[in-house]
Specification:
Layout lengths: L5 H13 L4 H17 L5 H14 L4 E10 L2 E10 L2 E4 L16 E2 L2 E2 L4 E2 L3 E4 L6 H8 L2 H7 L6 H9 L6 H7 L6 E3 L1
Parallel strand pairs: 1-8
Antiparallel strand pairs: 1-2, 1-7, 2-3, 3-4, 4-5, 5-6
Helix pairs in contact: 1-2, 2-3, 3-6
Length: about 190
């Protein structure tokens, strides 16, 4: 199992390329993973997905920002993920503090890079509904969430500029994404 290091980034690049996506997609995903690891961003799924959503949308891809419950073995948890062409992108799943579960790698286009096989997670299951914090994220206007994220200077727009250097005009991005909604999958 590959957990960290350059091999992890090489696997992301290979999966993205093999599935026919532009190299810029792998650059965004590798940068987001590096940012999360360097910042020790544990449990930052909603934030990471918000940043990835804007970056991939700006690259011209139709992506869906999803939120709901996920099942991993006997574990259920509230989570956010991205859907690109009906394939899961989930960088933050590798950062969930849940015992041995966090040893799994990020999910890139349905592939768990920790095992280099199709992921075994069940996205969008319904067990008990969303907790209060996840409901708050779900109902908060997207731009407000991006503006006020407390764990990053400049909110998530600052993280976006790190992950996707092409994001220069934050004022226009704020306007463009003001009606963005998270899709509650259950």
């Amino acid at each position: 199992m590959i957990r960290n290091g350059n091999d992890e980034y090489d696997l992301i690049r290979n999966i993205v390329c093999t599935q026919g996506y532009d190299e810029q997609v792998s650059s965004v995903l590798c940068s987001m993973l590096g940012y999360m690891r360097d910042s020790h961003w544990i449990g930052g799924c909603h934030a990471a997905c918000s940043v990835i959503y804007v970056a991939l949308s700006e690259l011209g891809y139709h992506v869906e920002l999803c939120l709901g419950e996920v099942k991993a073995g006997a574990l259920y948890f509230e989570h956010s993920w991205i859907m690109l062409d009906s394939k899961v992108i989930d960088i933050a799943v590798a950062m969930i503090p849940a015992g041995d579960f966090n040893a799994l790698g990020p999910v890139i286009l349905d592939t768990n890079i920790g095992t280099n096989q199709r992921h075994k997670l069940q996205y969008g299951v319904y067990r008990s509904g969303l907790d209060r914090e996840t409901e708050k994220v779900r109902n908060m206007p997207f731009v407000e969430y991006m503006d006020n994220y407390p764990k990053a200077q400049g909110g998530l727009w600052g993280v976006l500029q790190f992950v996707f250097p092409g994001a220069e005009d934050i004022k226009n991005l704020r306007e463009h994404y003001k009606d963005t909604m998270r899709h509650y999958v259950r």
